[in-house]
Design goal:
Blueprint lengths: L71 E16 L4 E15 L10 E8 L4 H16 L4 H4 L4 E5 L6 E3 L2 E5 H10 L2 H13 L1 H4 L3 H9 L6 H5 L1 H17 L7 H10 L1 H8 L41 E7 L2 E5 L4 E5 L2 E6 L5 E6 L5 H16 L3 H4 L4 E5 L6 E3 L2 E5 H9 L3 H9 L1 H7 L3 H10 L11 H17 L6 H10 L1 H8 L14
Parallel strand pairs: 3-4, 4-6, 11-12, 12-14
Antiparallel strand pairs: 1-2, 2-3, 5-6, 7-10, 8-9, 10-11, 13-14
Helix pairs in contact: 4-8, 6-10, 8-9, 8-10, 14-17, 16-19, 17-18
Length: 519
C-alpha cells in the first residue's frame, strides 16, 4: 500500500512505506466470497457508479496457498548492520541494528531463464533475537517465493518487525509486522496481502503514471474496490493486479460470480495488464493447458546466431548533438529526463531511428554503443524496423524491453546477449509488441491458436504477448532462414504451430531483406 497523507519518504535504498490498512483490510470481514459495500453485492446496474468489492486481498482465502511452488532457494546469514526502516508501531522512520539475511531465488530472469538468481535482503528487528530473526526471515522468504516473478524481481528488501500493524510496500521494499502476519495466515489471506504489497513494491513505479494505465482507468465503468476509488493513484493498480491474477490465471480458486463481476467492472485494466508480458512463474507456468508439451525452451535456441550483424541493412549513422529527452530507465523503473548524446541511424527502407545514449557514457564509448546496436537493429526485417521510433541506451544489467515505440537497452545485459549470439533474435521478439497489439484480438489469430492447441516454446506459455513474439520468430526462422536451422527443427516448428504459421503467411509482412533468402 502506498504512503498516506502527511507521510514523508526517503531514498529507495532505505524507503519503506505504508499508511493505513491494506485495501481496507482492517474494515473488512469474512472469507470466501468478497463482501460488497454495506453488506450487499453490487448489481450490474449499480456497477458503473459503485465499486463491487471493498478489497481484492479477500477475494478468496485460497487464491495462493502454501502448497503452491516457491522459487525460494536458500537463506544466508549476513551478520548485523544499521538500516533505516519504517516502523508502523512508532509511525516513523527509525534506525536499527538489524539482523541481515540474503534470500536467493531461482531463475527470475525472463530473457535468458538459466543460471540467473534474484536476491532480496531481509532486515529483521533485533527484538527477535538472532534465532527468531532467522526463522522469521526464512518463513517470509519462502512465502515471497510463491509470488509471480514479475513481483519478485522488483524487490530489494523486506523489513520485519513485531506488532499487529498493517503491511506496506513501495520502491522495492515490503514491510511486515509479524503479529499481523500471523492473523492473516490464520484467516488464509497472508499470501494475498503479500501479492498486494508486492505489486506496490515492484510495479507501481513503472505503471501507475503510464498513459496506457491512465487510459484504461478512464475507460472502465468504475474501480474494482472502494479503497482504490478513494485512492486511485496509490491503490488502483495493486487492487486491479490481484483481480487480474484471479481472472486470468487462478479463476478456479475464485467464485464464478466474482470472476464475471471483475470482467465487467475493469475490462480495460485487464487488457492493459494482459499486454505487459509479466512473468507469472512459479505461480502460473502456462497461460493455458496445451495439448502437447512445447518442443523448445526458447525459440532463439533453435539456432543461436541465426540472425547476425552481417544481415544488417543499416546505411549510416551520425551524431546530431545533445538535447533533453524523457526516456525510460529500467533501473529506476520509470521515465526520467536526461540530456543524452543523440545519434540518427538511417536504413534503406527510409526509416530514421534516434539513438539516445545516457550521458553516463563517455562520448567515444557512446559512439561504439550506437554502432553496435544500430547494426543489430538493421538485422531486423523492415516490418519491425518500422515499429521502432527511438532507442534508449543505458548502463546496467536490466533486460531489454520495448515501450511505446522505444527500444530500451541496458548495455551490461545486452553485451551478454550479444556475446551469446542471441541479441538480434531477442530484438525481433521485442519489436513484435506493436504487431501483437494490432493482431492479438483478431478472430484469425485467436482461431489459429485454438486450432494449434500447443505452444512452440516454454517461454511462449508465459503470456499472450510472449506467445505472439515467439511464434513470429519461429515463423521467421522456418520460412525465411530454413538453411540456418536443422531441418528437423524446422519441421518441429511447422508441425507444432501450423495455424499460427499460416496466419503469419497471410499477413504479407515486409520481411526484406529476408525474403531474398527464400527459395
Amino acid at each position: 500500500m502506498s504512503g498516506g497523507k502527511g507521510e514523508k519518504f526517503v531514498d529507495r535504498r532505505t524507503a519503506l512505506l505504508t499508511i493505513g490498512s491494506v485495501g481496507g483490510l482492517a474494515a473488512t470481514g469474512g472469507s470466501g466470497v468478497a463482501k460488497a459495500i454495506g453488506g450487499h453485492r453490487v448489481s450490474s446496474q449499480e456497477r458503473t457508479a459503485t465499486p463491487p468489492f471493498p478489497s481484492t486481498t479477500r477475494l478468496a482465502p485460497d487464491l495462493i496457498i502454501s502448497q503452491d511452488p516457491t522459487d525460494f532457494e536458500e537463506l544466508s546469514r549476513d551478520g548485523r548492520g544499521k538500516r533505516t526502516v519504517f516502523d508502523r508501531r512508532k509511525g516513523k522512520w527509525t534506525t536499527i541494528d538489524a539482523y541481515l539475511f540474503t534470500a536467493r531465488y531461482e531463475d527470475s530472469d525472463d530473457v535468458i531463464p538459466t543460471g540467473f538468481t534474484n536476491r532480496i535482503e531481509f532486515q529483521a528487528n533485533p527484538e527477535f533475537g538472532y534465532r527468531g530473526s532467522w526463522q522469521e526471515a526464512f518463513n517470509y522468504a519462502r512465502e515471497i517465493g510463491r509470488l509471480p516473478r514479475a513481483l519478485q524481481t522488483g524487490l530489494d528488501t523486506v523489513v520485519l518487525h513485531r506488532g499487529d500493524k498493517s503491511f506496506g510496500g513501495k520502491d522495492g521494499n515490503i514491510l511486515i509486522h509479524t503479529d499481523k502476519a500471523e492473523k492473516l495466515d490464520e484467516s488464509g489471506y497472508l499470501q494475498e496481502t503479500l501479492l498486494h504489497e508486492g505489486t506496490h513494491a515492484s510495479l507501481d513505479g513503472e505503471h501507475t503514471t503510464s498513459s496506457g494505465w491512465k487510459s484504461a482507468q478512464k475507460s472502465d465503468p468504475t474501480f474494482i474496490t472502494s479503497y482504490a476509488e478513494r485512492n486511485p493513484a496509490r491503490e488502483d493498480l495493486a487492487a486491479s493486479f490481484v483481480a487480474w491474477i484471479a481472472v486470468r490465471h487462478l479463476d478456479g480458486r475464485v467464485p464464478r460470480e466474482d470472476i464475471e463481476t471483475i470482467k465487467e467492472t475493469i475490462p480495460n485494466r485487464l487488457r492493459y495488464l494482459d499486454r505487459q508480458n509479466f512473468s507469472m512463474a512459479p505461480l502460473v507456468r502456462r497461460i493455458s493447458d496445451p495439448i502437447t508439451e512445447p518442443p523448445f525452451t526458447l525459440v532463439y535456441r533453435i539456432s543461436q546466431d541465426a540472425i547476425t550483424a552481417e544481415d544488417s541493412t543499416i546505411k549510416q549513422w551520425s551524431f546530431s548533438g545533445r538535447s533533453r529527452r524523457n526516456v525510460y530507465d529500467a533501473r529506476e523503473g520509470q521515465y526520467t529526463s536526461i540530456k543524452p548524446y543523440l545519434f540518427e541511424a538511417q536504413y534503406p527502407s527510409g526509416r530514421r531511428i534516434e539513438f539516445q545514449v545516457n550521458p553516463e557514457y563517455e562520448f567515444e564509448r557512446a559512439k561504439r554503443a550506437v554502432e553496435k546496436y544500430a547494426d543489430a537493429i538493421g538485422s531486423l526485417p523492415w516490418i519491425l524496423i518500422g515499429e521502432i521510433d527511438d532507442v534508449a541506451i543505458h548502463l546496467g544489467k536490466k533486460a531489454p524491453r520495448f515501450r511505446d515505440g522505444s527500444l530500451i537497452v541496458h548495455a551490461n545485459r545486452a553485451f551478454a546477449l550479444l556475446k551469446n549470439d542471441v541479441l538480434e533474435e531477442i530484438f525481433v521478439r521485442l519489436a513484435t509488441k506493436p504487431l501483437h497489439e494490432r493482431y492479438a484480438q483478431s478472430p484469425e489469430w485467436t482461431s489459429a491458436k485454438d486450432r494449434d492447441g500447443a505452444f512452440v516454446s516454454d517461454f511462449a506459455t508465459r503470456s499472450h504477448e510472449t506467445d505472439f513474439g515467439e511464434s513470429f520468430l519461429a515463423w521467421m526462422l522456418a520460412r525465411y532462414l530454413p538453411d540456418r536451422i536443422r531441418g528437423s527443427r524446422k519441421s518441429t516448428v511447422t508441425d507444432t504451430i501450423p495455424n499460427r504459421i499460416r496466419f503469419f503467411d497471410d499477413q504479407d509482412f515486409g520481411m526484406w531483406p529476408y525474403n531474398e533468402f527464400t527459395n
